[in-house]
Amino acid sequence: MKRILIVFYILALSHIAPAQGCLSEGITFSTQAQIDNFKTNYPGCSEIWGSVTINGGNNINNLAGLNLLTSIGGSLLINSNSALQNLTGLSMLTSIWGDLSINNCSALQNLSGVPNLVWVGGSFIIGQNQALTSLAACSNLQTVEGSLEITFNPVLTSLTGLDQLAAGSLSDLVIHDNSALSSCDVESVCVYLGNPIGHVDIYNNAQGCSKPPEIANACGFTLSCLPYGDYYLLSQEDVDNFKADYADCTDMNGIVKISGNNITNLIGLNDITTVGSYLTIVQNPALTSLAGLESLHTISGAVSIGFNPLLTSLTGMENLISLDGYLSVYNNSELTSLAGLENLTSIGDMLEIMSNEKLTGLTALSNLSSIGNSLWIRNNNNLTSLSGLDQLNSSSITSLVIAFNSQLTTCEVESICDYLASPGGSVNIENNAPGCNSPWEVEDACEEVGVEDLTLNRNLRIYPSPANNSIFIETPGTSGNKQLEIVDASGQQVMFKTITGKSGWIDIGSLPKGFYIIKIIGENKLLAGKFAKE
Fold first, then answer.
1. How far apart are CA 113 and CA 67, in angstroms?
2. Cα 308 to Cα 315: distance, rounded to the nearest angstrom
3. How many CB atoms lie within 10 A of CB 314?
4. Which of 285, 223, 225, 276 is nearest to 253 (CA)?
5. Which of 49, 83, 373, 386 has the highest CB neighbour count under 10 A?
6. What φ, ψ does residue 494 adopt, rounded to 5°?
7. Domains (range + CATH), the chain
8. pLDDT digits (tens, 9 = 90+) for 124-165
9. In what order do the strands lie in the sheet with 27-29?
């Protein structure tokens, strides 16, 4: 209903003064002359049906040539105009049907010039404007149908000017990295925070506007959980005060980012049971433990744990059973084990273990049975073995990277052997220690593992190997009927038949490529050998 009323309002304005539509494909202004000559080049054009881009570097210093413009059917993008100080020239503009984006205009001090703008059909984006001090000129803006995004404006101190904006029209609220912004408790923001219908991303502003609970307090109420997120815990105080800031909140929907120079522990999060999207624990130079996350059992997105130089294990995540996204553990220089992940059984996306200098083993992953994408093990210079990945279903791996682990010699665990026998995607194994320095080295090691329990009789000759459609076997010293069995690298029987004679060709054309063990049983003898199918 609100949008219909706005449309009627705009149509009413169009009857007051005759308007002419033009430029359905839109227009880009890159020089002052193009703006100055607009009325001459497009006589009577007051409604541009397409998008308008104003991107002139240091060439455009005013918008006076657009002073007949009343409506834009697409987006208005005013970006990277270093000489533009205000928006004077857009005083007739009432509606923008797409986004309004004003970015990287280093001389822009205010938005004066848009006193009649009442409706934006997309997002309202104000970012990286180094001199912008005020939004007061937007005092008649009533509706933004997308997100409100105010970011990286270092001298903006207040959101005054957005008071009349209907909070119910907003999708998301994004206010961050405005280092002087301390006053955010305008009516539109207060109303939205009281009943958010989308994500809330508020952080790295000045005191008073540095996080949602501060703004809510200034608005006169307290928050519980943000129904769609997000949470930015950027100091130990943020962690310690979480229960007070978000009363009775145990389900953290949306993104949870834990990143702060003075964060030493996560005890303040010990009631959290679920994370509804991404959990990132990154760049915490003082964090020594994940203790405090013991109640966490469900993560609906991904987990990134990186650049935590004092973290020695992942103890604290023992109750995590599955996650829907990827798991990335990287650049934790003191991490020696993945202890804490013993109960993790499935990962919905990629598993990445990378650049953890002191990591020695993966045994904490011994219950992990499936992943949904790539397996990457890279640059872990003290890792010696892949033991712990034995139970991983090789068919759940879509690509395999094992590289630049300088001490890694043991890669012939069952999941890796099975994958190499029948790859479901690409393989990159290189620059590890001998024994795991190439796919062929690992395949040879897998082959040895597969026959370790057999007594091999070297009188059984098999050639060629690798073979394509058939192999020739010679079984000297045996006669009569014999049983021939072929098993794959996982121990699964793929062929069983009775043969006669001491030699002959065996058709293997139907077998997938990989390594196989062949057994011949006859006359109380067991002969065994190996071959590869290419």
1. 9
2. 14
3. 25
4. 276
5. 386
6. -115, -15
7. 453-533 (2.60.40.3080)
8. 999 999 999 999 999 999 999 999 999 999 999 999 999 999
9. 27-29, 52-54, 76-79, 100-103, 124-127, 148-151, 173-176, 200-203
